[in-house]
Specification:
CATH architecture of the largest domain in chain B: 2-Layer Sandwich
Distance between the termini of chain B: 39 Å
Strand order of the largest sheet of chain A: 3-2-1-4-5
Number of domains of chain A: 1
Structural class of chain B: alpha/beta
CATH class of the largest domain in chain B: Alpha Beta
Helix content of chain B: 40-55%
Number of helices of chain B: 11
Number of domains of chain B: 2
Radius of gyration of chain A: 16 Å
CATH architecture of chain A: 2-Layer Sandwich
Order of helices and strands of chain A: EEEHEHEHEEEHH
Distance between the termini of chain A: 26 Å
Helix content of chain A: 25-40%
Shape of chain B: globular
Largest interface: A-B, 29 and 29 residues
CATH topology of the largest domain in chain B: Nucleotidyltransferase, domain 5
Number of strands of chain B: 10
Strand order of the largest sheet of chain B: 3-2-1-4-5
Strand content of chain B: 15-25%
CATH topology of chain A: Nucleotidyltransferase, domain 5
Oligomer: heterodimer
Largest sheet of chain A: 5 strands, mixed
Structural class of chain A: alpha/beta
Chain lengths: ~190, ~350
């Protein structure tokens, strides 16, 4: 399975390609504005993997919350690619990805340390949730390392979805806005 | 046979269309956002962008289905990337880039206002020749000397509001739904256009510029003092008459000053009933031929985008995948500026 993962919710547009032979390619683009970065990241990762859109089986996108423009462009571009080349598209909110990444309960905190959302479940009563900062002031290296973990999980989630036969209709791909997530309108 | 898919997301209409080499519209789908914005009496840019992102691929799919084709049957994709609300325009560009990259198709950049100019040319081949175009809508209001396609000279522009904007504001004063142009038009049909003597801004200033901001205030003052709704049609008709008087006079003055006997009218306000009656009537007396864009091509749509792209392809455009949103781009190769309060 040839799968691309795309995340433009944060400071960089990051894409990863996992080819069916197991080879993994990554590209992170920042500093060019959200819109150009999304295109450049996808172009770069496909070029590195010597792959065309027609050869892809799926794309997995972080649907937000996050940079409104970055997320919106990533989701729309991914949907356009998938619809045009007839492959599947899956979207997951950053909260769901983060929750799954920690393997337990995760609390998302804002700049003031206030919990704004919780995701996931713990087997042990009273266990403190893992804290995940929505606005990390990390170095570029640390930040990208954390986002790379997101991408790798997204690739895995894409493979799971393909294996289980999920529809992955590109037309169903939608962005997740923070308020909508909190009110349960969309996840 | 080459088919072009056009995509248009300049403001609050999400549109896709398929047009063939003879400019025949195979399909044209427009998904409006009236319900999203009517509570605000205007378009909220962030909300517009969100709605575009939600529906753009569905609109594209419907346009392809109605044309009876799939992405693989297209020869190019065109998108308005040069005029409109930045957040809205980038959504259309993202969808277009994705589709074009997926099918390895040329991506043709189109200017929204130029596409409006072309909307009349698509249905009237005589307009491939030099003519004057009155482009009048909610987001633009200009008199353009079309030397040839791609070569434009803005010879008049609004100094503040567009006529379409004035229609929307007056509609709000009269309690009409947004967007109000068609509602004001309908209400005016039952009113007396001479009931109120509203000003005709810049009618006799000797320029080809417009100003509709000052017309709104006297209309608002009258609307606020209305004892009951029975006089609303008179207000609408009198306001409409004032706007149309100015549009007709300035358009014909442009034709006289530039010695041109062909005029086109495009944009949402080109649907206005009184303008469609009065301009040809007045023009005939001066030997000027008037063409209105078909109503379905007047309001924002993607058929005009795809049509212009067909012309560009015919003229040798090759397209590019590396295309971004530049929503304040000047018009045509002369770099004409059609926006308010700025010199060309």
């Amino acid at each position: 399975m040839n799968i691309v993962a795309l995340d433009a919710a944060g400071r960089y547009a990051i894409a990863a390609l996992k080819r069916s032979d197991g080879a993994l390619y990554e590209a992170a683009i920042g500093g060019e504005g959200a819109v150009r970065s999304v295109y450049a990241a996808v172009d770069a990762v496909l070029a590195k993997g010597d792959m065309t859109p027609a050869a892809l089986d799926a794309i997995v996108v972080n649907t937000g919350p996050g940079s409104w423009t970055g997320v919106r462009i990533a989701v729309t571009y991914a949907a356009g690619l998938a619809f045009g080349a007839r492959f599947k598209a899956f979207g997951h909110s950053g909260f769901v990805i983060g929750g799954r990444l920690t393997g337990g309960r995760v609390a998302f905190i804002d700049q003031l340390g206030k919990t704004v959302a919780e995701e996931g479940a713990s087997d042990r009563d009273g266990e403190s949730p893992h804290l995940m900062n929505l606005f990390p002031e990390a170095s570029a290296e640390d930040y990208l390392a954390a986002r790379r973990a997101f991408l790798h999980l997204m690739l895995h989630m894409g493979a799971e979805a393909l294996t289980s036969g999920e529809a992955g209709d590109p037309l169903d791909l939608q962005t997740t806005y923070f308020q909508e997530f909190l009110t349960g309108a969309r996840n | 046979m080459g088919l072009v898919l056009g995509i248009e997301t300049a403001c609050d209409d999400t549109a896709a269309a398929v047009v063939d080499e003879s400019f025949a519209v195979r399909s044209s789908v427009v998904w409006g956002q009236k319900q999203t914005h009517e509570a605000f009496n205007g378009v909220v840019p962030e909300l517009a962008a969100r709605r575009h992102a939600e529906v753009i691929l569905r609109v594209v799919k419907q346009a392809l289905n109605e044309a009876g084709v799939g992405p693989g049957d297209l020869s190019a994709i065109a998108v308005n990337n040069q005029h409109g609300l930045i957040r809205s325009v980038v959504v259309g560009v993202a969808a277009a880039r994705g589709l074009a990259f997926a099918q390895n198709l040329p991506l043709i950049p189109v200017h929204h206002v130029e596409a409006h100019v072309f909307s009349a040319i698509m249905t009237d081949p005589e307009l491939f020749d030099e003519h004057i175009c009155l482009a009048v809508a909610g987001g633009h209001n200009a008199l353009i000397r079309v030397h040839s396609i791609g070569d434009y000279e803005v010879i008049g522009r609004t100094l503040d509001d567009s006529a379409g904007e004035a229609f929307d504001k007056v509609g709000a004063y009269l309690g009409l739904p947004f967007p109000a142009g068609a509602h004001v038009d309908k209400l005016a049909r039952g009113g007396n256009p001479n009931a109120y003597d509203f000003p005709r801004p810049k009618l006799k200033d000797g320029t080809l510029n417009f100003s509709f901001s000052g017309l709104k205030t006297p209309v608002r003052m009258v609307a606020e003092k209305l004892a009951d709704a029975s006089s609303a049609p008179d207000v609408a008709a009198s306001f409409e008459r004032a706007v149309v008087d100015v549009l007709v006079a300035k358009t014909l003055a442009a034709a006289r000053m530039h010695g041109i006997s062909k005029v086109s009218v495009v944009g949402g306000v080109a649907c206005n009933t009184l303008l469609r009656q009065e301009l040809p009537r007045a023009a005939e007396k001066e030997g000027v031929r008037v063409t209105f864009a078909p109503p379905r091509l007047c309001t924002d749509n993607a058929a005009m985008v795809a049509g212009l792209a067909q012309y560009k392809l015919r003229e040798g455009a090759s397209g590019t995948l590396d295309l971004n949103a530049t929503p304040n781009a000047p018009l045509g190769r002369r770099g004409a500026n059609y926006r308010p309060n700025q010199q060309a």
